[in-house]
Hints:
The structure holds two protein chains of two kinds.
Chain A: H1 29-33, E1 47-52, H2 59-68, E2 72-77, H3 78-82, E3 93-96, H4 110-118, H5 127-136, E4 140-144, H6 146-153, E5 168-171, E6 179-187, E7 201-208, E8 212-215, H7 218-226, E9 232-234, E10 256-260, E11 266-269, H8 285-291, H9 302-313, H10 325-330
Chain B: E1 6-12, H1 19-32, E2 39-47, H2 53-64, E3 70-74, E4 85-91, H3 98-111, E5 122-130, H4 136-147, E6 153-159, H5 188-197, H6 204-215, H7 218-223, H8 232-241, H9 244-247, E7 254-259, E8 265-269, H10 271-289, E9 295-297, E10 304-309, E11 312-320, H11 322-327, H12 329-345, E12 353-363, H13 379-395, E13 401-408, E14 417-427, E15 429-430, E16 433-434, E17 445-450, H14 460-463, E18 468-469, H15 482-497, E19 503-506, H16 511-523, E20 526-529, H17 542-547, E21 553-558, H18 563-573, E22 577-583, E23 588-593, E24 596-602, H19 603-608, E25 614-619, H20 635-643, H21 652-655, E26 666-668, E27 671-672, E28 678-679, E29 683-686, E30 694-700, H22 710-727, E31 743-750, H23 764-785, E32 789-795, E33 799-802, E34 805-808, E35 812-821, E36 838-842, H24 853-857, H25 870-885, E37 891-894, H26 899-907, E38 914-919, H27 925-930, E39 937-941, H28 946-953, E40 957-964, E41 968-973, E42 976-982, H29 983-991, H30 994-999
Parallel strand pairs in B: 7-25, 12-13, 18-33, 20-23, 31-32, 38-41
Antiparallel strand pairs in B: 1-2, 1-3, 2-5, 4-5, 4-6, 7-8, 9-10, 10-11, 11-14, 12-14, 15-16, 17-21, 17-22, 19-21, 20-22, 23-24, 26-29, 27-28, 29-30, 30-35, 31-35, 33-34, 36-39, 36-40, 37-39, 38-40, 41-42
Helix pairs in contact in B: 1-4, 2-3, 10-23, 12-13, 12-15, 15-18, 20-29, 22-23, 22-25
Amino acid sequence: MVDGDGNILLPGYKSVDGGHESAEPLKSSTEAQAGNPQPAADRSKVQALILTGFGINCEEEFAAAYRLAGAEATVVHLNQVLHGHVSIHDYDILNFPGGFSFGDDLGSGVVLANKLRYRKNDQGRTLLDDIREFVAGGKFVLGICNGFQVLVKLGLLPDLAGTATPEVTLTHNASGRYEDRWVRLQVNPKSTTPFLAGMDTLEVPVRHGEGRLIIGSPEAAAAIEARGLNCLSYLDEAGAPTAGYPRNPNGSDLHCAGLTDTTGRVFGLMPHPEAFLSLYNHPDWARRKRADPGLSEEGEGLKLFRNIVEHIQRQPSASASVQPKARQASI
Amino acid sequence: MEPTQRTIQLLLRPDQHDGEGQRIAEAARRHLGLHTGRVQSTALYTVRYPLSDQQLRDFATHCLQDPVLHEVAFDEFRHGPEYRSYILVAKLPGVTDDEGISAQNALGDLLNEPLDTHTQHIFSKRLYFLEEALPEADLRRLAQELLGNKQINRFEIGPLTDIRDYTPRPGGGAEPITETVPLTGLSDEQLVQLSKDNLYALNLEEMQTVRDHYAGMQAERTAAGLPLDPMDCELEIIAQTWSEHCKHKEFAALIQYRDLDTGEAFEVDSLFKTYIKDATSEVDRQLRANGNDWLIKVFSDNAGAVRINPESLFVWKVETHNSPSAIDPYGGAITGILGNNRDPLATGIGGARLLFNTNVLCFGNPEFDGTLLSNQLHPRRIFEGVRKGIEDGGNKSGVPTVNGSIVFDDRYAGKPLVYCGTGAVLPMQLDGLDSWEKNIEPQDRIIMAGGRVGKDGIHGATFSSIELDETSPATAVQIGSPITQKLAMDFLILATRRGLIRCSTDNGAGGLSSSVGELATISGGAVVELADVPLKYPGLRPWEIFVSESQERFTLAVEPAKMEELLALGREMEVELTDIGYFTANGYLDVRFADKPVAYINMDFLHDGVPRKVLEAEWQKPQAQEPTLAADLDYTDVLTRLLGSLNICSRESVIRQYDHEVKGRTIIKPLMGATGQAPQDAAVVRFNFESWEGVAVSNGILPRYGDLDAYAMSAGSFDEAVRQIVAVGGKLPNLSYGDGNFWSVNDNFCVPDSVYDPVSNPDGKQKLAKLVRMCQALRDATAAYCIPLTSGKDSMKNDFKADGVKISVPPTVLYSMTAKIEDVRRTITSDFKQADDVVYLLGETYDELGGSEFYQFFGELGANVPQVRFEAAKALYILIGEANDQNLIQSCHDLSDGGLAVALAEATFGYGFGAEVDLPAGLPVPVQLFSESHSRFVATVAPEDVVAFDQHFGGRATRLGRVTSDGQLTVRHASQPVIAADCATLRHEWTNGPVNRIIGFGQHETAQQ
């Protein structure tokens, strides 16, 4: 958040040691049981939980995005959740950042999805069980890049059948290579997800090697299109959805860069809106600023985070701040 | 007992496009001239874990198979009917198999039980089918040159009717025994032979010193119950500690220098001390006298550290990984980048957060079409392998690769140079202690964290200290696992913030021997129990355990009282921690295996006992003259072809495969502008999301100039890196009292063997003289700009010998610079911003085409190598900083390879602008266009700022013309056009140059329907 003169309006000081600073990281189970106080969370704010560990690597900018959007961001190691030291039900939005979880050795996101689907906690529940309950309760899930891949491999996107069975997949780019380049996306006007409310187009970087969406059957493709679940498409220079490289960097079916589930509350995309929080992330910032000295210093990607935070703020009943029960249950 | 072995094969469904197979077929045709027909790629997983049929089926279908993409076969090698031959690519025993480990992890999740991680149960392989029935020799070539590397892979090949499988069977082999190595009574020849046979890389004098040391220790060793002769582990420790790689003996040597032209002679008492350390001390004195006390740690730890602000340190380190990259380009580069990451991570207490990576690569011509020497890899293959290693090393660690450079010269065809740099940030205080200090108390525990130990990388430190030849050992190669390291890195960050670690260091060259040996100098000794070290597989001898360079490991010093909490954190984060001993103060490195001694070495002898080298250097100015070129050159054509030449053309295909913006902090990326194709001079990265403070990063490297004058080459490289930072808006340090404007520079010398030997190295004295002159230039440059060095490295034996031929790198130095940027929003990019902005040349052009790309284009070297005029350069850099403070500069691009003409062209690549330029009277046109005189820039200025700009720069700025909207580059001299080019055409030539052609541009494959 910056004012017109570029002064930062965010509290906080100039320590470079970001990331985990607001999110008391990784308590051992003994500490949690001893009832050590959690960080002084401002429960009046929207609560975003951001998972990390095992090769996830975009958690810092993800957290910054939520903080800039006015939410409280908590970064925790995945084992904190799997071992029951942190409950996702204490939060409003569950976030899967990008990275290379488990090295993407068996295919991007596969091992992490497998862990969420099969690894059981002491109560015999999997994290997938918890996430489905979380979504059914009106809460939100966001996956970016590797996080999107995890949600797809888990079957939470697009989840046409509502059974968390994989219906589409994300695989190697048609170019056969990893690529970092900026693309322009169109928001599907049919999409109803609050994440993209009021947005028409969006510039963002892609940074992936396995972002090619393949839809398992023509029926699934038709259903996705009919319900507008293909919420983001790659655009060519003229502003039309494209299959052409490099504007469509991976050759996805339906030129698709992102999906929602049928509720619009689970959302995943390959490009990185959290990498465009400031104007100065854009490769053409200097020329644009010369052309328009009054240009906003905020990056377009931040809008998406503002959207969801404001949406949750408008629904007081859905806020985690009035549902502290799960936290007590986990102690 | 043999556990049952089952095989799972994943095949793409027939309606899915096999991109990998298609790429292999294309590469075989393009690079090897082999016609494979169609290629089918499949994945194999061999499972040696007792599973029921149903469990195996569930594992395959739920954990491995992607239902949209794959079909699964069990215990068979399924393939299409049209295929005739096969290639199986498996891993040799002990080679890192991340895919197998991940599959094992998934199996554990599926079964909901932790699998014994001490044993590898699942082995991943690739199995390819080829349509053509190729002869064995062709299949083997394809396997070795495209699909794997014989140093790390086992290949099975042949006709389809006879498929052989291979699964590594680690273990067996030697017992944990320690032998003694008698030295007494050996002749000089025998001592030298022993050193060579055992890869100690010690010379005769050093071997004699060791022998004499043991001869004098007999009473003491008898009393301690030790054998009189040195034990194998002791000699390995000494060889590692005394290796050139670890001890920098040539940079510490006494050098007798003679200038044969002038007769001048002098003695250099250590290059490092004279030209690097003392020069930086003088800079530091000047900085402190002017209230700039940001230089915190230089030359004394894994990386240098400077203060960003009262809360934070910036940590910066650049290293090379040349020898391993020559043998296994992918493995060498990935371990290079991961190894270099561990340096800032383990500086001081440890736990710095990595901010960015850089890399500078020197290769032979990738289009080389001559005959290769034995065991020499093709330069294209080295290029592709190294590039992939840097991609995986950076991307999978979540560290952006923000900057780099690639230099081509045929003399890098034997040994490539692979420089990896990492910048990181560290809080000044960690749990109330100064983060940059390393403290250890006796009785502190020694903890090994991260990966396990195998035979990989044994002798890396000594091996990199000798020249490569065709018999270089395979065990010197290591494979990196970025994810293992990422887990260790995440762990280290938390453990240090919680005060659980006294200090840490990296296990790099020399393994535990180096890391424990160095940490032990802090407390004054250590006891290590090697039987406790976790191994990848049995069969290692104690000395192998101690010197193995298996990757992704840290050594930690931990207070006994903190052990429990530390181990709990390790369990939670799934990082293996092992207590392998404790620090002492008795002056000995005491290494045991199951309580039996394997080494007991006096620390003073180990660290200070190496005899000093005395070397000779002789300088003579090379004979060189300026060539006569045709008077009627078509400069438009020359410029066009220069833009498409190997050393100038676009590197976009390489750059885009590196993630240069993870962490969301990269402000100036390698390529910018609306097109994303305008090359930039230095990268700029902000430190966090709460302030606009950041750091600029640049690289200076100009090996070609060294053929004319090593001093000018070194000075020019230094200036190149400085002016790149100035071009993006960085300011020189120490301009005003307490300005806090830190600079941190790493020097990396990579030279051929420079020790004279009448037979094997007859021009050694000349080479050493070049090194001396490079160091003199470094000293002069640091003094002139008041820029300190904070860390550095030298790599002294960059020669490749085979079949009686020696390929030696040209003496090369890289200056890797970082400088504070007060406000990243005030930085400047190189591309033109708006039509009618006025184009200026800043700085002065001289008749200095010697060593230029322009001469190179005509196959000439010339004589007039560019000189750095430090005082004039510094004054100009100060003016630029002041002009930027007044918002007078719209774009700024430094002039380097290809001079003014290339810089003007590149500045148009960002948007579609053109430029109209009139060259002033004076120097000849080719000099004005292509001279590579240092300390110059092309800058643009808004029309309304021209008066102020002229006034500010006075005679230092030459008005050249204006930016145009028509996309044409027009250069006139005396009203006559000398260049008239379409900028889109120039960009096309630049973009479709040899680098992007070779690496490929990532066009989509045509999907087969």
